[in-house]
């Protein structure tokens, strides 16, 4: 088994313990957008599923549509054990995949960060792919952390000043729907 496959296998085995919390965050986002009249298609592998998937790699979690027209992808990220003093981050590979998808399909990805503390939502914000790409391109924002499970993960730190309140995302999606640049 290759080193990368072994690493992925260890990560998946460790991560399944937090699978339920991640599914709750994904369910929240799906319900939020559907309640605003958007159509939401699950596109990510294992999104909102109880069972743990052995496969890896996929598109972002959701595709957001308005009247069957594709607007953007949504990737849900965040911390299941939120601490306001810690950096907000996106897994580097998720940014890389979003850039590839945008080039191939012409659709942007929006990253939604949900921070949970004791099972309650305490932080909800987002950045778009352009903001994430800026920090992805600058090595000084890259972090390599040992997780509590012993695996090392590659993250991109996005400064707090770049994250906008989740409530502003409705305006961003309306802008995309109308095709208006800001």
Mean pLDDT: 82
Overall geometry comes to globular
User: Which range does the strand content fall in?
Assistant: 25-35%
Which percent range fits the helix content?
Answer: 25-40%
Number of strands: 9
Query: In which order are the strands of the major sheet placed?
Result: 1-2-3-5-6-9
The N- to C-terminal Cα distance equals 48 Å
SSE order? HHEEEEHEEHEEEH
Count of helical segments?
5
Report Rg: 16 Å
Low-pLDDT residue intervals, each spanning 5 or more residues: none
| Helix/strand structural class | alpha+beta
Largest sheet: 6 strands, mixed
Write up this protein.
- With 182 residues, the protein is an alpha+beta fold.
- Helices cover 34% and strands 29% of the residues.
- The protein has five helices and nine strands.
- A hairpin with a 2-residue loop joins strand 5 and strand 6 (120-128).
- Helix 3 crosses helix 4.
- The longest helix is centred in the N-terminal third of the chain and has 17 residues, at 19-35.
- It is globular, with a radius of gyration of 16 Å.
- The model has no long low-confidence stretch (mean pLDDT 82).
């Amino acid at each position: 088994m290759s080193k990368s496959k072994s690493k992925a296998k260890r990560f998946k085995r460790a991560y399944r313990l937090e699978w339920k919390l991640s599914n709750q965050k994904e369910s929240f986002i799906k319900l939020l957008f559907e309640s605003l009249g958007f159509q939401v298609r699950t596109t990510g592998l294992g999104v909102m599923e109880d069972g743990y998937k052995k496969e890896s790699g996929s598109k972002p979690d959701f595709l957001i549509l308005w009247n069957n027209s594709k607007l953007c992808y949504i990737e849900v990220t965040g911390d299941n054990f939120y601490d306001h003093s810690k950096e907000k981050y996106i897994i580097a590979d998720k940014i890389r995949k979003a850039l590839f998808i945008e080039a191939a399909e012409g659709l942007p990805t929006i990253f939604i960060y949900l921070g949970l503390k004791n099972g309650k939502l305490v932080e909800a914000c987002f950045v778009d792919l352009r903001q994430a790409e800026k920090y992805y391109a600058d090595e000084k924002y890259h972090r390599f952390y040992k997780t509590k499970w012993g695996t090392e993960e590659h993250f991109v730190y996005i400064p707090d000043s770049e994250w906008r309140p989740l409530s502003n995302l409705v305006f961003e999606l309306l802008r995309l729907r109308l095709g208006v640049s800001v």
